[in-house]
Write a structure and sequence with these properties.
Layout lengths: L3 E6 L4 H10 L6 E8 L3 H11 L3 E4 L5 H7 L6 E4 H9 L3 E6 L7 H7 L3 E6 L3 H16 L3 E4 L2 H9 L8 E8 L9 H5 L3 H4 L9 H9 L1 H13 L7 E5 L5 E7 L4 E5 L5 H9 L31 H11 L1 H19 L8 H11 L8 H15 L1
Helix pairs in contact: 1-12, 2-3, 4-5, 5-6, 6-11, 6-14, 10-14, 11-13, 13-14, 13-15, 14-15, 14-16
Length: about 375
């Protein structure tokens, strides 16, 4: 087997650390060229010493000397700041794991596309804010897009592109998050600690809050629209509290293909890393003997208005998708800082949808400008 060269953009986050856990025991299969981090210098240093990448970049320039000093006796080169992040993204690889949280991950993704054979997207925001641009660039450079989100990874595995016209709809499953059984009044005063306590998945703070508001699923609806070229009316959301069925594809003849697995992000990450092959992992596996029930229910769009927002944004166009994403990032950041309540998140996101009305975008510069305008309008 040929060794795959890899870069990991956002190596110190939840997806990045899981990716390293999978590749570190397999030096005969993977060679890491670059790692990037935001500000977690200690973990970046630990990772670099563990897997010996050619280059590491840290966004926080105040941490440069610390990282450089710690890696002085190694062959790893060190960079800092936005330029270094983009340099890491531009390195030629067989596979690039894009796991930088938020809109900050968009430009690195676009830099990576011409320089990698396969882009594994773990962060939703590039496709939500710039789905058409990302996919057109991938087509231009013949770069394979491999989704790492468990739901989109599941669809990817059972989505028969050759039979695209025979697909009736795709069904994204959602756990319902920690507040599935809460009332709206209870949710309104939820604390950050309660919001990030997901019942099934281990994730970073931002995506955990998104799961609690179901904004995570709203963004996934938009992401699925672009990834699979599916109109909004052929994308459904279904609550499935056990998180065993990760998503489904329904065909015209009534057949439904589903991908099942234990709720462990190492599974979709491993699928993307080894594609088109498979690799053994030490992740969780399904215990069929003790799997007693699988439950399903329709999402309550009054309790979770984020779901409807996704369809409204798709109907309004790309500018609306950019603005609700920006508004959500601002709202979640303020909630985690305890500046607003959980109940104030969605009203802020709705303002983002209103702000985007009548605006048009086509280039990266347009997208970044609208993102910034939305953030300023909500400051």
């Amino acid at each position: 087997m040929l060794i795959k060269t890899i870069s990991i953009l956002g190596s110190t986050g939840s997806i990045g650390t899981s990716t390293i856990d999978l590749i570190a025991p397999n030096p005969d299969q993977f060679k890491v060229r670059a790692l990037t981090a935001g500000k977690n210098a200690d973990l970046l240093i630990e990772q670099a010493l563990k897997i010996a990448p050619e280059f590491v970049a840290i966004q926080d320039e105040t941490q440069f000397e610390k990282v450089k000093s710690a890696l002085a006796g190694t062959q790893t080169k060190v960079g800092a700041g936005r330029t270094a992040i983009l340099e890491a993204a531009s390195m030629e690889t067989d596979l690039c794991m894009a796991a930088i949280v938020g809109i900050a991950g968009l430009e690195p993704v676009l830099k990576a596309i011409p320089n990698t054979k396969a882009l594994t997207i773990a962060n939703k925001e590039p496709l939500v804010a710039a789905g058409e641009l990302v996919l057109s660039e991938a087509k231009k450079y013949n770069t394979k897009i491999l989704p790492v989100d468990s739901e989109h990874n599941a669809i990817f595995q059972v989505f028969e592109k050759a039979n695209r016209a025979q697909i009736k709809k795709i069904i994204l499953t959602a756990s319902g998050g920690p507040f599935r059984t809460w009332t709206k009044d209870q949710m309104a005063t939820a604390t950050p600690e309660q919001a990030i306590a997901h019942p099934n998945w281990t994730m970073g703070a931002k995506i955990s809050v998104d799961s609690a508001s179901m904004m995570n699923k709203a963004l996934e609806v938009i992401e699925a629209h672009y990834l699979f070229d599916m109109p909004a009316n052929q994308i459904d959301v279904l609550i499935h509290p056990q998180s065993i069925i990760h998503s489904m594809v329904e065909y015209l003849d009534g057949s439904v293909l589903a991908q099942l697995g234990a709720p462990d992000m190492r599974t979709p990450i491993a699928y993307a890393l080894a594609y088109p092959d498979r690799m053994a992992t030490t992740g969780k596996t399904l215990d069929w003997k003790n799997l007693s029930k699988l439950e399903f229910e329709q999402p309550d769009t009054d309790q979770f208005p984020s779901i409807k927002l996704a369809y409204d944004a798709l109907a309004a166009g790309q500018s609306a998708c950019i603005s609700i994403n920006a508004a959500n990032e601002i709202a979640v950041e303020r909630f985690l800082k305890r500046e607003i309540t959980f109940g104030e998140i969605m009203p802020l996101v709705k303002k983002g949808l209103t702000f985007a009305t009548g605006k048009s975008v086509s280039t990266l510069e347009d997208i970044i400008a609208l993102d910034r305008e939305t953030r300023r309008s909500l400051a």
